[in-house]
Amino acid sequence: MDQSRVLLWVKAEPFIVGALQVPPPSKFSLHYLRKISTYVQIRATEGAYPRLYWSTWRHIACGKLQLAKDLAWLYFEIFDSLSMKTPEERLEWSEVLSNCMSEEEVEKQRNQLSVDTLQFLLFLYIQQLNKVSLRTSLIGEEWPSPRNKSQSPDLTEKSNCHNKNWNDYSHQAFVYDHLSDLLELLLDPKQLTASFHSTHSSLVSREAVVALSFLIEGTISRARKI
């Protein structure tokens, strides 16, 4: 009898590099991200799915979420930096931008960029890692100490965000606590109710499972490869 087990763990890089150490925009809540997920998946022919182009994300971020264009680009660029690209490819992209003579030329080049749609949705969701709750803002850390009490609220907030980004336990706890939301975010629109919720019969697609590789990796025990 095969006694091997599947071992899973949460990747650190998406949280260390990808989660900005500031509270996320309010429009990055699950409610709005569900709407975005449905919006992009039913517009597969418009540069939205399975690859999301910068021009489409700009339209969503600036037109529907009311984000500043520079902030929309910041999230898009950070996620793109997490993709598997060679140093040569990154250097070539930097050179292309440096040769642009106007904002219009820069935008033209950016419009050629695309990212994995489902993984980008997960990336936007994990920005909640550094969301500051009302309770946290009132009492500080869960177990306050004299040292923490002497810090200003701003310093405490930044310290808490920094600790979360570099704490593997926080990453694992975040994914574990929000796994149902993450899976729901990846569902095909046909698997959702009219209010964008899953049902007991909802099934995730193979593409959704693959998208989770952005956050989760694993191996079968006794196997050496991830």
How does the SSE layout of this entry go?
Layout: E1 6-10, H1 13-18, H2 30-41, E2 51-53, H3 54-64, H4 69-81, H5 87-98, H6 103-110, E3 114-116, H7 117-125, H8 134-139, H9 146-150, H10 153-166, H11 168-186, H12 206-211, E4 216-220
Helix pairs in contact: 2-7, 2-11, 3-4
Protein name: TBCC domain containing 1
Organism: Homo sapiens (Human)
InterPro entries: TBCC1
What does this structure look like?
It comes from Homo sapiens (Human). This is TBCC domain containing 1. InterPro entries: TBCC1 (IPR039589). The chain is mostly helical. The two termini are 23 Å apart. Helix 2 crosses helix 11. The protein has one domain (4-136, 167-222). It has 12 helices and 4 strands; from the N terminus they run E-H-H-E-H-H-H-H-E-H-H-H-H-H-H-E. It has a two-stranded antiparallel ribbon. A two-stranded antiparallel ribbon has the order 2-3.
- Count the DSSP helices: 12
**Overall SS class:** mainly alpha
β-sheet strand percentage: 5-15%
The global form is globular
Radius of gyration: 19 Å
N-to-C order of helices and strands: EHHEHHHHEHHHHHHE
Main sheet: which strands, in order across?
1-4
Number of domains: 1
Question: What labels describe this entry?
Answer:
mainly alpha, 7% strand, 226 residues, 12 helices, two-stranded antiparallel sheet
Short structural description:
The protein is mainly α. Helices cover about 55% and strands about 5% of the residues. This is TBCC domain containing 1.
